[in-house]
Design a protein that fits this description.
Layout: H1 7-30, H2 34-46, E1 48-53, H3 58-72, E2 78-83, H4 86-98, E3 106-109, H5 112-120, H6 137-140, E4 150-157, E5 159-162, E6 186-189, H7 195-204, H8 210-217, E7 222-224, H9 227-236, E8 241-245, H10 247-252, E9 260-261, E10 270-277, H11 284-294, H12 297-307, E11 310-311, H13 320-323, H14 344-357
Parallel strand pairs: 1-2, 1-3, 6-7, 6-8
Antiparallel strand pairs: 3-10, 4-10, 4-11, 5-8, 5-9
Helix pairs in contact: 2-11, 3-12, 7-14
């Protein structure tokens, strides 16, 4: 029996052909370029990546690592991650460099002066990731840019956080925090015990006068350092307002309690969280490939979803759930400050000024 093509079968064959062409095109589009292919082959031979950071929670780390391995088709690849506080990251890397026993291939930490010291001492590998071109907004705000030696991947900001169960006003302005009705209800993150808070204070002084800080001091704030401790006090209502809260902490408890945050209309100080590859990395190809992934859209979207970070990429699509707490970088009015020019002498003067205003 001879089959005679009908209009239906012809249409079916056309659809199948189009599907095959589409699949071929998709495969070609997803095929790695020569640069990435070489790094993939090198990383597979190395078989491991060791990295230190002060950011990623276990869930975020797991998601990033699984996505990395899947994207590049790595087999039996291992990770040696270390999660430390920022001061511990600096201390560990510094000690290892002094002993000439560098264990980490890749480092992420938000201490700009530390990165400049690593760069000047030749401790960092030069690597120009093709993803760096999408990271311009943080540099434009004055956050140090290490070129091909280190890059600000994320922004870190400390801004008002409050419990709407106790505070009905939208604290979208720094000036609103100075209202005497909030006396005894406020936490102030202590610049004398936290370097990031001191730098935030220094940045805020460029847009807020001493008189504003005197008004805040008159509120008799409670002083804390750890962002989780601050968040927890706001949650319970013991101190329902944090002058310098960390918005991702509110995001982390969004399913159990509502906390509100703002990025005041006068401006917010945004500090950089920097990443780079150690010059004596044992697994250089893996470190370069991880850098490409970490700074890619895929990597930034995973971090934003899990950690609610201020992603340094300006081309990420909006995430409504995250943006309730942390808006995209293009929507934040960033206080411009040349952090490379900040010296220890400046910090010492800022500490002295703060102590003279906030007498305990």
């Amino acid at each position: 029996m001879k089959l005679v093509p009908t209009r239906t079968t012809a249409t079916l064959f056309a659809l199948l052909a189009a599907s095959c062409l589409s699949s071929t095109a998709a495969f070609a589009q997803s095929a790695p370029d020569a640069h990435t292919k070489a790094l993939m082959e090198g990383a597979q031979k190395e078989g491991q990546l060791a990295y230190i950071d002060n950011l990623m929670a276990p869930e975020s780390r797991k998601a990033m690592q699984e996505a990395f391995v899947k994207k590049y088709g790595l087999r039996n690849f291992k990770f040696k991650p270390y999660l430390l506080k920022s001061s511990e990251v600096v201390a560990r890397v510094s000690q290892e460099l002094k002993a000439d026993r560098v264990s980490a291939d890749w480092v992420l930490v938000n201490v700009a002066t530390f990165w400049r010291k690593l760069e000047s001492s030749g401790a960092l590998m030069k690597y120009c990731s093709p993803e760096y071109k999408a990271f311009t907004a943080l540099g434009e705000s004055g956050i140090p840019d290490g070129g091909c030696y280190f890059k600000a991947a994320l922004g870190v900001a400390f801004t008002p956080m409050w419990n709407p169960k106790y505070v009905k006003e939208n604290l979208d302005s720094w000036e609103k925090l100075a209202d005497p009705k909030y006396k005894g209800q406020m936490i102030f993150s202590d610049p004398l015990k936290g370097a990031v808070y001191l730098d935030t204070y220094i940045g805020l002084r460029t847009i807020l006068p001493v008189s504003w800080f005197k008004k805040i001091a008159a509120q008799k704030p409670f002083y804390l350092v750890r962002s989780t401790d601050i968040r927890d006090k706001v949650m319970t209502g013991e101190y329902p307002i944090a002058t310098l809260g960390y918005a991702p902490r509110a995001y982390q408890v969004r399913n159990s309690v509502q906390l509100d945050v703002s990025y005041p209309k006068e401006g917010s100080v945004v500090l950089g969280s920097f990443a780079g590859i150690m010059a004596k990395a044992t697994h250089p190809n893996a470190a370069k490939l991880w850098t490409d992934f970490f700074f890619s859209k895929d990597g930034m979207e995973i971090l934003r979803k899990n950690e609610a970070v201020i992603a340094g990429r300006g081309d990420l699509p909006p995430d409504p759930e995250v943006e309730k707490f942390v808006p995209s970088i293009s929507k934040i009015k960033i206080v411009k400050f040349d952090w490379d020019k900040l010296t220890e002498k400046d910090r010492k003067a800022a500490r002295a000024e703060f102590e003279s205003i906030f007498t305990r």
